[in-house]
Amino acid sequence: MIPPKPRPREGKGSVWRFIREFRRDILSAQSDRLYRAWMAEFRGPFIHSFTCNDPSLVDMVLKRRPMDFPKSPRMAAGLQPLLGNSSFISNGATWLHQRRIIDIAFERGRVREAFPAMHDAAEAVVERLAPLADGSEIDIEPHTSHVAADVIFRTLFSIPIEHETASQVFESFREHQDAQPMVNLGGLIALPRWARYHNRRVRHSARRIRRLIKTLVAERAADIDAGTAPQDLATKIMTTPDPVTNEVFTPREMIDEVATFFLAGHETGASALAWSLYLLSGSPYWQEKLAREAKTHLSRDFSCVKRLETARAVFREAMRLYPPVAMTVRQCRHQETLRERRAPKGAQIVLSPWHLHRHQKLWDNPDGFDPGRWDTPNGQSCMRDAYMPFSQGPRSCPGAGFAMIEGPLLLAAIVRDYRLEEPDKPPVPVMRLTLRGKDGIHLRLHKR
Ligand code: HEM
């Protein structure tokens, strides 16, 4: 099965044409050459950037010298109203402090403790889908967003999405996203810095979300003081001191991080799950294999996770073809030489999982859907050198372990109970906050 891919731009064209197309759709504005090239330089009126596909360059930027390639202020500009100065956009000493605390909270043992809550969310979405399983075409994206948000609230604050404050955060978040369609998690924003401003709707919805989170954080702080707090991720994050400075997060820092976990944690998981379901709808072989596996092994016991091998391979392959954070940007702190080209201080480094994951010189059958590839020598070497849905190095996603349990679990629960059938028209991938379908991601559900 060869799933949909935007038609790339052909030929060179003018810089202005590129900018026009980029503003319409970042993915299809990119040149076809990026699926074969190791690096591409772009000079525009407001930007000088280098898209790096060479695994050794990616390794240098993300793993060997990450402090010389901080996150770009472009990223901060789009996300700051909601995220404040959270770990997702901060740099330097502030970021180091935040990550020291977060990494402790996301240790593997914690994810294990969170598993029953994830499982409850999985059973809840299976139930919500029941009235829709009559074979008519539905957009699955709102449902994957809903369940991913449910997982975050249940694991972070031990409340389901139906909780009044949780559902208000979820609703306000939709508004926030509608108010700024050009912002994406990777920080690729088509407007120059001076031309960007946050309209009233953006500021209003961000303030509302932060106010709601503030209430949750204050209530939890009171429960911690009273000794009645549940032992979930929020309690862990709020009570873990930075092992170097011994300081715990201030309430404001905690609001920044909760907003980040909500944004980075639910939008990404929702995108990966929706694409996984779509891909399975066109692949009866993998769908039936996964359904058998889920029927045999899925349970509320954490030990079932290691047996969900097909679910994991499918989820991994879906994130190869449709990485939720399809591109991300760093900035050169000093002048650099990249494959014999001079990159001045301040130049943007674009890292593109979208292109790296489909690179024609690296992958066998780069555009095909094949969850079996992970057992081949090519799949294994590419997983090491050319696969980064969670980024790589010290700034990689702290929620990766969490997401690799949540995603296969949700997928297995849905496919155990429903047979998926392809839609009439395939989805068109576009970069919104994460990688989504232009008009949603449609499919048909039938009760098994
Ligand atoms: C399928 C699910 C997920 C995917 C694909 C994903 C992907 C990513 C990627 C690519 C980054 C790096 C972005 C960049 O460098 O520009 C990142 C960072 C981050 N993610 Fe995730 N993520 C997922 C789930 C989660 C979850 C569940 C959480 C927490 C509950 C989370 C929290 C974060 C945070 C806090 C960062 C910022 C890390 C830093 O800059 O130090 N993510 N994620």
TrEMBL record:
Source taxon at top rank: Bacteria
Alphabetically ordered keywords of this record: Heme, Iron, Metal-binding, Monooxygenase, Oxidoreductase
UniProt-listed Pfam families: p450 (PF00067)
InterPro entries listed in its UniProt record: Cyt_P450, Cyt_P450_CS, Cyt_P450_E_grp-I, Cyt_P450_sf, Cytochrome_P450_Monoox
PANTHER family linked to this entry: BIFUNCTIONAL ALBAFLAVENONE MONOOXYGENASE_TERPENE SYNTHASE (PTHR24291:SF50), CYTOCHROME P450 FAMILY 4 (PTHR24291)
Family membership noted in the UniProt record: Belongs to the cytochrome P450 family.
Protein name: Cytochrome P450
